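Box S2. Input/output pair 1.
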Amino acid sequence: MTTSGTARGWARLGLGAATLGAIAGAAAYGARELLTRQAAVARTRINHHALGEVAPDADKVWKKRYGDPVELLVLGDSIAAGLGADAPKHTLGGGLARRVAKRTGRAVRLHTAARVGSESSELAGQLAGLPPGYRADVAVVVVGGNDVTHRVPTADSVRHLTDAIELLGARGTPVVVGTCPDLGALRPVPQPLRSLGSRASRQLAAAQRDAALATGARAVSLAHVVGPFFITNPDEMFSLDRFHPSTHGYKRTASAMLPSVLAALGYAETVPFGHHAPARSPGQGSQPDGSAVS
């Protein structure tokens, strides 16, 4: 997610949210004015230029000496790409690659197709840009924040996510979806605009979870597994722009997503709270407790 695009998105979110419901007449005008002013405040508080627009390049074979590499694909937006991390090993992909290698005893070849600023509609393009014949052993998708700030209808966001999961499933690749983070953790955004963003992001996250499970993918509710750390320790968890995760934020996120990634690879049978497995994965029969058993 680009920071300048995010700021404009907050303005659009505020204007759109103010027109919802039964607000009318002078009340509606006052609400629009308030949220527009708050979007302007958010623009001044978020450091648009602190990180640039390019995430560290983490694509390589991690722990090559282990051999028999796992093919790890990462799709999505700036969080998936790792914008805000201090070094390649601290990006989401780099952090997952190192942790998967340690737990499996295998090397991990990372391919990051995620791009800064992407919405869910761009997942198809990220898949189309993969090398011919490429097939990952597991794909991780984190997307949705830009959909919220740009007021993309939830149904459209979910449709694009579902299409991507189905395309990966057709290639034999299991998918782990990290659902949309809670935008209510963004302290630079004043109230009540922050609450509106929180509500919208949580609604999208729930829809993403349901769509992922219905399509045979796993889902990790980021608002539940790492969201509290961002709320209680914002100075540590956010990067210089006060919007994207810091190195510590990515460490927490990679560690939180690891159980579902290992389960998708067949190296774990159970997953903790906030992780969700489909009752039926592609090519598998039904399981008695899809929320905890791979």
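Box S3. Input/output pair 2.
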Amino acid sequence: MTPQRFHQLRAFMAVCQTGSVSAAARMMHLSQPAITKLIRHLEAETGTALFDRARRRLAPTDAAHVLMADLKGLFGAMRNVDVTLNGLRHAKGVQIRIAAMPAIGTHLLPGALPSWIAVRPELRFSLSVLSSLDVHHMVGSNGADIGFALPVQGTGSVTIDRTLMIHAAVVAPHGHPLTRARRIRVKDLVRHRLIFFSQQFALGNPIGEYFSQNGLEATSFVETQNSACACAMVQNGLGVAVVDVVTAFAHREQLTIRPLDVECVFPVQVIVPPGVSPGNDAKRLAALCTDQIALINRTIMA
């Protein structure tokens, strides 16, 4: 790719992201005529119209959407290279890049990392907290050395080192009628407003299959894709939720946690880039997470 073509593609992506030539010019620190010229040359050289100019606001054509899909991966990979280069410049020891879904990255890893670093004080690490889908993309493109994510289909190749089985539990406001029981029967949940996980995400609704298989119908008041968000909604009186015990345990002072009377688990995969075997540092971190999850599982499920 020539430098000129690279600048054309950057201008194209900037216009797509901002929706206007003026905003793209500010983003790239160029003049509006310069952005317009880059886009025009790209269209002329490829013989493809990338924007519909019939309206005041530029609208990407179908061809532009196809090009954008490819460029997202290209520029994403370039950002990963920048992160790596910055890490090499600033780190004096070995750097490990970690990507984790919110439950692991926010509530579990901060407790596991001190023990990990105590064994290898020369280690330097970066931690990106992302959706499971983005964790798969980042690890699959070698943007991270180890990832913690729920299974996601159709995201490319990664190597699965192990699967951490995290139990699900019910979180409810203190004093809620459901909390009178030591274990909550799933069929009792249907009488209360439930905060569900959106079906459009990889995890889906962790208890929904049980409902459908047993002819039960729940009242779904709100949906979300984030366990911490579900806990916040429960805390504000919007209903009760079934979440992973790691997130539930982090909210134990604000909410009451109760196990279910049926087994329901969140299979969190520990993944590394395709064709790569987990190194000793990655294995040690995964083992520490396994131990922490086992302790939380025992505490809540006992």
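Caption for Box S3: The chain has twelve helices and eleven strands. Confidence is low (pLDDT under 50) at residues 200-204.
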